[in-house]
Amino acid sequence: MANNLKDILKEKVSEKELELVPRSFEVIGSKEKSVAVVEIPEELEAKEKIIAEGIMQLHKSVKSVLKKSSERRGKLRLREYKLVAGDKNTEVLHKEHGYLLKVDPQKTYFSTREATERQKIAEQVKPNETVMAMFSGIAPFAIAIAKKQEVNKIYAVELNKNAHKYAEENVRINKLAHKIVLIQGDVKEVCKKYFGKCDRVIMPLPLGAESFLDVATKCLKQEGGIIHFYNWGEGKDPFEKAVKLIEKNCKKFEILDKRIVLPYAPRKYKVCIDVKMG
């Protein structure tokens, strides 16, 4: 019985091609139905159908295989995908850490690889806190926190209308409407209503988040609070760029923690800096 994708494909592609077969891919969903998201090198485009079928053979729950066909772009930072094999309906119900998340990866950003990070944030939140979750997507951070802590309120702001609709469904599924307030709109406009009301702000958009640091700071209560700032880092010190951006955009602060959330490319990482403001 084959234990990995290369074992399945070794009789179907050349040795040279086998070296280029993706070592890993993301599976979103459940045992009943899941979607695989894979990055296939240009050199293997002629074999993409064989690779997709191999993934479906390896993971019986996978009913659709999506190939990344563009970088993230546009205001909503969405990526284009190509359905290589399986069902055209790529909506799935994903389970992690005791809660459910309905999502269609073709319509909105979601990563299973950030599940551990969501739990790390949820564990830091204190009882009765008011939390602002910027760029909240389908609400995975908000739901992770609300499931773990007796918060006062979590305000979750998302620009993408499709993601907002999934967030509404996910709050309903997990019975958390009493804790989570979902707002569809632009962070820079919507958050004005919540200036001075929050104990903590989560900023999980790694590209360009520094331009929202002033808004995040204003959301905090007069005595200050915590900001979780995400960014891309490279090389020997992947935190250097993020720290410099905080230094440039913030006045009185203390860095509490720095961590790598996940690798993005060779020597490039998504990082998080936990900052105490005030």
Radius of gyration from the alpha-carbon trace, in angstroms? 20 Å
CATH architecture designation of the largest domain? 3-Layer(aba) Sandwich
> Can you tell me the number of structural domains?
2
What letter string, H or E per element, gives the SSE order?
Answer: HHEEHEEEEHEHEHEHEHEHEE
Helix content: 25-40%
Main sheet: which strands, in order across? 9-8-7-10-11-13-12
List the total number of helices.
9
Write the CATH fold name of the largest domain. Answer: Rossmann fold
- How much is the average pLDDT? 93
Unreliable sequence segments: none
Brief digest:
The protein is built from 9 helices and 13 strands. With 278 residues, it is of the alpha/beta class. Helix 8 links the parallel strand 10 and strand 11 (225-234).
Key features?
278 residues; alpha/beta; GMP Synthetase, Chain A, domain 3; Rossmann fold; 2 domains; seven-stranded mixed β-sheet; four-stranded mixed β-sheet; 27% helix
Write the layout of secondary structure elements.
Layout: H1 5-9, H2 15-20, E1 26-29, E2 34-38, H3 48-58, E3 62-68, E4 81-86, E5 92-96, E6 99-103, H4 115-124, E7 130-133, H5 140-148, E8 153-158, H6 161-173, E9 180-184, H7 187-190, E10 200-203, H8 213-219, E11 225-234, H9 240-249, E12 253-265, E13 268-277
Helix pairs in contact: 4-5
